[in-house]
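Contributing new records

If you add data, match the layout below exactly. Sequence lines come first and carry their own label; structure lines follow with theirs. Keep one chain per record. Anything else will be rejected by the validation script.
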Amino acid sequence: MFQIETISAKMLDYYVERSDAVIIDLRDPAAYRRGHVRNAVNIPYRELDEYLEKKQDQKYRFPKDKLLIFYCDRGGASMQAARSLARQGCRTRSVIGGFAAYRGRNARIKKADNIKSDCECISVTNLVF
């Protein structure tokens, strides 16, 4: 089995402003809009999984010189994504407990549907960092 390094949800704050790391939210766009970690890009797991299976037209090009930090709802999908991309030579980490465990200062949470949010969905195509 391929070992993946994990980090606690609390450690996400350490990576938010780092130029050598990219935080990737694997949840669906609706969940991302309801709340996410600041500066995280949204690549839904289903989309990423399809890309990894089929290598669709180089839709995503993940940088090998940056640390890819994956989180999902609870940690399972992020572990799979981190493992898949580590096999391709990327440096990866998976967040234990996912967004459900995150209580840090960089959470961007939409308060209510009728209040305009500062959260915009950053769904990425042709991703190059």
